[in-house]
Amino acid sequence: MTERVALIGSGNWGSAVAKIIGRNVRKFDHFDNKVKMWVFEEKVNGQNLTEIINTKHENVKYLPGIQLPSNIVACPDLLETCRDATMLVFVVPHQFVTSICKQLKGRIPANCKAISLIKGIDVNADGFRLITDMIQESLEVPTCVLSGANIANEVAEEKFCETTIGYRNRADGELFRDIFHTPSFRVNIVPDVVGVELCGALKNIVAIGGGLVDGLKLGDNTKAAIIRIGLYEMRKFAKMFYADVKDETFFESCGVADLITTCAGGRNRKVAEAHVTTGKSFDQLEKEMLNGQKLQGTSTAQDMYNILSKKNLCHEFPLMTTIYRICYEGIPPIRIVEDI
């Protein structure tokens, strides 16, 4: 059977993985060579972004300077992108997942499977849901997750890194590994969707802590302590809500490696440092510094705080609670080391 891959999303990370997928599908007989990529249509210098991508083979807004393979076809229509796809790759900000799934429900092939590259959780009145569960329940398709120490620009420049795919069905994990694995983007697959996904969501909160430490010029020992406490709280949270999460997952790229790279580089760290040095709000800095991208660490910190406070657990997660309070209650950034 020939698999047809569709990409849902075309931002910085979406474009970086489009480069990998576009090349990889040509290497195997079991993939259709054409990969459609849904692009939220916008004008760049008076021209539609989809037209620019399809003629210049470059996402000039979100991944400038990187050539995309010619078999990546930008499409502004979500349903047209996914209509005959058997493999969906979700790589959009997590707040868009619900509306995308509503539009796709009942309109994709029955043998479809999905993978989420989205870092975040969905909080509602009853608690929270994982993005893979939202996709799986809404579209009734088996859903894997990919997460790792993967700063998009470095991946696009083919600098060596690793990533982790979590699967429920090993055959799906192996199929998705085919479209992502390269010599410079090494994929390991593990039977722990929940562990991989929670690592990807929670590490962005810790990255805010890393940036605050940088802004306060507290040094490398302090940052190492924040990373260690952060990993401890991530694991504690995952085990508290999902007993079958595997310890080994925290030693994969999605766990400790992603935590280190996000606390060293990445947008959450950068904006948190600027919050300390400029005194500006996170909202204002997001608009000024991120070229339309979303800051995920602050919103995930708020989501976590809502979950923990409802269950009266804030005292058990002092680092994540303190980061929330610095972001949303205006307490001084130095409390990052005083209150934990």
TrEMBL record:
<feature type="binding site">
    <location>
        <begin position="9"/>
        <end position="14"/>
    </location>
    <ligand>
        <name>NAD(+)</name>
    </ligand>
</feature>
<dbReference type="GO" id="GO:0141152">
    <property type="term" value="F:glycerol-3-phosphate dehydrogenase (NAD+) activity"/>
</dbReference>
<feature type="active site" description="Proton acceptor">
    <location>
        <position position="203"/>
    </location>
</feature>
<dbReference type="InterPro" id="IPR008927">
    <property type="entry name" value="6-PGluconate_DH-like_C_sf"/>
</dbReference>
<feature type="domain" description="Glycerol-3-phosphate dehydrogenase NAD-dependent C-terminal">
    <location>
        <begin position="192"/>
        <end position="337"/>
    </location>
</feature>
<dbReference type="InterPro" id="IPR036291">
    <property type="entry name" value="NAD(P)-bd_dom_sf"/>
</dbReference>
<dbReference type="GO" id="GO:0051287">
    <property type="term" value="F:NAD binding"/>
</dbReference>
<feature type="binding site">
    <location>
        <position position="152"/>
    </location>
    <ligand>
        <name>NAD(+)</name>
    </ligand>
</feature>
<dbReference type="GO" id="GO:0042803">
    <property type="term" value="F:protein homodimerization activity"/>
</dbReference>
<feature type="binding site">
    <location>
        <position position="40"/>
    </location>
    <ligand>
        <name>NAD(+)</name>
    </ligand>
</feature>
<dbReference type="Pfam" id="PF01210">
    <property type="entry name" value="NAD_Gly3P_dh_N"/>
</dbReference>
<feature type="binding site">
    <location>
        <position position="294"/>
    </location>
    <ligand>
        <name>NAD(+)</name>
    </ligand>
</feature>
<dbReference type="GO" id="GO:0005829">
    <property type="term" value="C:cytosol"/>
</dbReference>
<feature type="binding site">
    <location>
        <begin position="267"/>
        <end position="268"/>
    </location>
    <ligand>
        <name>substrate</name>
    </ligand>
</feature>
<keyword id="KW-0963">Cytoplasm</keyword>
<feature type="binding site">
    <location>
        <position position="296"/>
    </location>
    <ligand>
        <name>NAD(+)</name>
    </ligand>
</feature>
<dbReference type="InterPro" id="IPR013328">
    <property type="entry name" value="6PGD_dom2"/>
</dbReference>
<dbReference type="InterPro" id="IPR017751">
    <property type="entry name" value="G3P_DH_NAD-dep_euk"/>
</dbReference>
<protein>
    <recommendedName>
        <fullName>Glycerol-3-phosphate dehydrogenase [NAD(+)]</fullName>
        <ecNumber>1.1.1.8</ecNumber>
    </recommendedName>
</protein>
<keyword id="KW-0520">NAD</keyword>
<dbReference type="GO" id="GO:0005975">
    <property type="term" value="P:carbohydrate metabolic process"/>
</dbReference>
<comment type="pathway">
    <text>Phospholipid metabolism; alpha-glycerophosphate cycle.</text>
</comment>
<feature type="domain" description="Glycerol-3-phosphate dehydrogenase NAD-dependent N-terminal">
    <location>
        <begin position="5"/>
        <end position="170"/>
    </location>
</feature>
<feature type="binding site">
    <location>
        <position position="119"/>
    </location>
    <ligand>
        <name>substrate</name>
    </ligand>
</feature>
<comment type="similarity">
    <text>Belongs to the NAD-dependent glycerol-3-phosphate dehydrogenase family.</text>
</comment>
<dbReference type="Pfam" id="PF07479">
    <property type="entry name" value="NAD_Gly3P_dh_C"/>
</dbReference>
<dbReference type="GO" id="GO:0046168">
    <property type="term" value="P:glycerol-3-phosphate catabolic process"/>
</dbReference>
<feature type="binding site">
    <location>
        <position position="96"/>
    </location>
    <ligand>
        <name>NAD(+)</name>
    </ligand>
</feature>
<dbReference type="InterPro" id="IPR006168">
    <property type="entry name" value="G3P_DH_NAD-dep"/>
</dbReference>
<feature type="binding site">
    <location>
        <position position="267"/>
    </location>
    <ligand>
        <name>NAD(+)</name>
    </ligand>
</feature>
<dbReference type="InterPro" id="IPR006109">
    <property type="entry name" value="G3P_DH_NAD-dep_C"/>
</dbReference>
<dbReference type="GO" id="GO:0005634">
    <property type="term" value="C:nucleus"/>
</dbReference>
<keyword id="KW-0560">Oxidoreductase</keyword>
<dbReference type="InterPro" id="IPR011128">
    <property type="entry name" value="G3P_DH_NAD-dep_N"/>
</dbReference>
